[in-house]
Amino acid sequence: MRALLAIDTAGMLGDDLFDQVSSREALDLRDRAFMVELVRGVLRYRATLDWRLGLLSDRRITKLPTLVQTILRLGAYQLLYLDRVPDSAAVNESVQMTKQQSRRLGRDWSGFVNAVLRALLRSPEPAWPDAGSDPVVALAVRYSCPAWLVERWCRRLGAERAEVLCRASVEAPPLTLRVNTLRTSRSALLADLAAAQVEANPTSVSEVGLQLSRSCAVIDLPGYAEGRFYVEDEAGQLIPLLLDVQPGQRALDACAAPGGKATHLAALMENQGEIVAVDRVSSRLDLVMANCRRLGVKILTPLAGDLRALVGAEIASHPMLSRPFDRILLDAPCSGLGVLRRHPEGKWYKTPESIAQHRRMQVELLAVTSRLLRPGGVLVYSACSIEPEETESIIDEFCQAHHQFQRESIAPWLPPAGLPFVTPRGDLSTMANSKRMDLFFAARVRRSE
Ligand SMILES: C[S@@+](CC[C@H](N)C(=O)[O-])C[C@H]1O[C@@H](n2cnc3c(N)ncnc32)[C@H](O)[C@@H]1O
């Protein structure tokens, strides 16, 4: 409950928050794992839970005190989605928790919580709202999506395609590894995993990916400490390929942390050449360096700072940025609406304004990074979003305003199985994929000689 309340206040979910709560509550590893499952589950299904609870309550769930909302959602999630907690235990625990909060709440809400959760236990599963009369409400409730986003997708793509996106946003993502080819091969890692009874299959698009059949603690997998793999979604594994980096080149990763794509670039460069990895948050660059040590990457130099400030007037004398780059990756900060299944909290704190805000940053970052590219060099822009404002329209406008840059098709740089994800303009979009990949966009531009 504390973790959920913290998310409501700060809008952030991450290991730091789980660590803080588990040390304050002295949770052991099993209890911590259960807390993470509860928190993620409640956030993933929040709109569906609120709808089910709302059918049984004479008060609107979102008008109740936040603490009562949170307790009800936690209880309802356990009743509707978890088998391993007995129903009576879930209800009793929720009622006790509410009693303990009576002083904070100014009155005792435990009778109300008890009545609503017991009604949920007794009531048969209701029919989903009718999509014919209001597709936005129907999809928002069924797939636990914010109505503004469903409305946006329905308007742009029609209800049928919007439903595919909504469904993808609520599913639990698979655990996918990228084989670190500096250390091993896909077949060798597959054999190591099989020997440890870990079921995995080669990914069908990325040629260096393995999808595990079940989620597990990554650090317990064979080869983790030895840096034989990096945990990374299959769509993310396709982006570095689009730069066509070569050993000996000089590359810039303009927004590098935690280093997934930068360490992949190093592997593609066979650890020869130079990668400058910039990130605005220096503590996140520590993560990049830790990943480099584990994966055996030797050619990466970190550079902390806001790229917009770093590429200032004194660029010509900057020790790391003054020499132009052969290749640049701009994996831009974005709304993250393509990875909601990984970050379910994002559904409830992002707004249409998040898209506009990120767009402003993306436009600025693209303008400054492009100045660092050598004539004939290649820049790849990517984002884990499928909103046009953050994706193709950024590249359309950039190329219109900068005639020395031409958009190139990414098709030659993808493995054959990736070709269905090439858009008519020649960009990469995993928006409609049946491979359980994140929803990513990438475009490639070249600077004229
Ligand atoms: C999408 S993440 C990058 C993920 C990374 N490329 C990877 O594959 O692991 C975006 C990163 O951009 C950084 N960032 C945001 N604004 C920035 C700026 N103005 N200059 C440099 N880095 C920035 C964020 O701190 C964040 O780490």
From TrEMBL:
<feature type="binding site">
    <location>
        <position position="306"/>
    </location>
    <ligand>
        <name>S-adenosyl-L-methionine</name>
    </ligand>
</feature>
<dbReference type="InterPro" id="IPR018314">
    <property type="entry name" value="RsmB/NOL1/NOP2-like_CS"/>
</dbReference>
<keyword id="KW-0489">Methyltransferase</keyword>
<dbReference type="Pfam" id="PF22458">
    <property type="entry name" value="RsmF-B_ferredox"/>
</dbReference>
<keyword id="KW-0808">Transferase</keyword>
<feature type="binding site">
    <location>
        <position position="331"/>
    </location>
    <ligand>
        <name>S-adenosyl-L-methionine</name>
    </ligand>
</feature>
<feature type="active site" description="Nucleophile">
    <location>
        <position position="384"/>
    </location>
</feature>
<comment type="similarity">
    <text>Belongs to the class I-like SAM-binding methyltransferase superfamily. RsmB/NOP family.</text>
</comment>
<dbReference type="GO" id="GO:0006355">
    <property type="term" value="P:regulation of DNA-templated transcription"/>
</dbReference>
<dbReference type="GO" id="GO:0005737">
    <property type="term" value="C:cytoplasm"/>
</dbReference>
<dbReference type="Pfam" id="PF01029">
    <property type="entry name" value="NusB"/>
</dbReference>
<dbReference type="GO" id="GO:0008649">
    <property type="term" value="F:rRNA methyltransferase activity"/>
</dbReference>
<keyword id="KW-0698">rRNA processing</keyword>
<dbReference type="GO" id="GO:0003723">
    <property type="term" value="F:RNA binding"/>
</dbReference>
<dbReference type="InterPro" id="IPR054728">
    <property type="entry name" value="RsmB-like_ferredoxin"/>
</dbReference>
<feature type="domain" description="SAM-dependent MTase RsmB/NOP-type">
    <location>
        <begin position="165"/>
        <end position="448"/>
    </location>
</feature>
<keyword id="KW-0694">RNA-binding</keyword>
<feature type="binding site">
    <location>
        <position position="279"/>
    </location>
    <ligand>
        <name>S-adenosyl-L-methionine</name>
    </ligand>
</feature>
<keyword id="KW-0949">S-adenosyl-L-methionine</keyword>
<dbReference type="InterPro" id="IPR035926">
    <property type="entry name" value="NusB-like_sf"/>
</dbReference>
<dbReference type="InterPro" id="IPR006027">
    <property type="entry name" value="NusB_RsmB_TIM44"/>
</dbReference>
<dbReference type="InterPro" id="IPR001678">
    <property type="entry name" value="MeTrfase_RsmB-F_NOP2_dom"/>
</dbReference>
<dbReference type="InterPro" id="IPR029063">
    <property type="entry name" value="SAM-dependent_MTases_sf"/>
</dbReference>
<dbReference type="Pfam" id="PF01189">
    <property type="entry name" value="Methyltr_RsmB-F"/>
</dbReference>
<dbReference type="InterPro" id="IPR004573">
    <property type="entry name" value="rRNA_ssu_MeTfrase_B"/>
</dbReference>
<dbReference type="InterPro" id="IPR023267">
    <property type="entry name" value="RCMT"/>
</dbReference>
<protein>
    <recommendedName>
        <fullName>16S rRNA (cytosine(967)-C(5))-methyltransferase</fullName>
        <ecNumber>2.1.1.176</ecNumber>
    </recommendedName>
</protein>
<keyword id="KW-0963">Cytoplasm</keyword>
<feature type="binding site">
    <location>
        <begin position="255"/>
        <end position="261"/>
    </location>
    <ligand>
        <name>S-adenosyl-L-methionine</name>
    </ligand>
</feature>
<comment type="function">
    <text>Specifically methylates the cytosine at position 967 (m5C967) of 16S rRNA.</text>
</comment>
<dbReference type="InterPro" id="IPR049560">
    <property type="entry name" value="MeTrfase_RsmB-F_NOP2_cat"/>
</dbReference>
